[in-house]
Amino acid sequence: MINNQPLGDLWYLQDNDAESQYYGQTFRFDFSYIHSDEIKAVYKEYIWQKHRTGSKAIRTLVGEVVSFKYFIFFE
């Protein structure tokens, strides 16, 4: 399977699930707040895999990124 994972720390992903209430909307994913390159790489791969396979709704993934951001700033 080809991995077309976006480059950089700022991604714009579109919801392509015709059954989703957010169908056609574009969501912004910002990973710039993660300072560790290793953690950032793993987290990006997790988000990309869940988006690519459709195992989680894109709106749920946006919520997870925001929650992780709060966790990073809390510690």
List keywords for this structure.
75 residues, alpha+beta, two-stranded antiparallel ribbon, 2 strands, 45% helix, globular
Written account of the structure:
This protein has 2 helices and 2 strands. The chain is an alpha+beta fold and 75 residues long. A two-stranded antiparallel sheet has the order 1-2. The longest helix has 17 residues, at 37-53.
Task: Write a short abstract of this structure.
The chain is of the alpha+beta class and 75 residues long. It has 2 helices and 2 strands; from the N terminus they run E-E-H-H. The longest helix has 17 residues, at 37-53.
Strand content: 5-15%
Report the uncertain regions.
none
- Output the radius of gyration: 13 Å
What is the overall number of helices? 2
Order of helices and strands: EEHH
Distance between the termini: 37 Å
- The helix-and-strand class reads alpha+beta
Mean pLDDT over all positions: 91
Q: Describe the largest sheet.
A: 2 strands, antiparallel
The backbone outline, from C-alpha atoms, is globular
Share of helix, binned: 40-55%
How many strand elements? 2
